[in-house]
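Example 3.2
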Amino acid sequence: MPRSVLHFDPALLRKARKEAGLRQEDAAEAAGMARTNWNATETGRGHSPGPAGLVRLAGAVKVEPWELSGITRDQATLRDLREWRGLNSNEVIERLDTWGTRRQLDRIEHGNAELSADQVPKLAALYDVDEATLRAAGEATLRRG
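Structure, written as tokens:
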């Protein structure tokens, strides 16, 4: 089972669905899930989604994944940026095969190590953010670590 995203607010999912004018059945179909699973996720009775699930939920209600997180983009950590792209740690390492190991990424995401200068542009491109945003998330990660 995928690890749950760090920040997910079921109430924001419900709000986004209602603002999109969708019934639970319609949103669930758009996300590729059963209505009962949608309901459990939206009411907080189900599991918090993994990164890919978060992206599917956001797409179903036509919002960006960070809008379901309860934090603003400028509060994001490196893990938040990764999850908002729908990626788990292993996928990052696979896509950036010369980048490092999962252990190195975990240390960076937990604030126990800093990004190197050569890692910043690669990770920024993968997360589809500019380098300044990635650096700011790195600094937020270190503060929370």
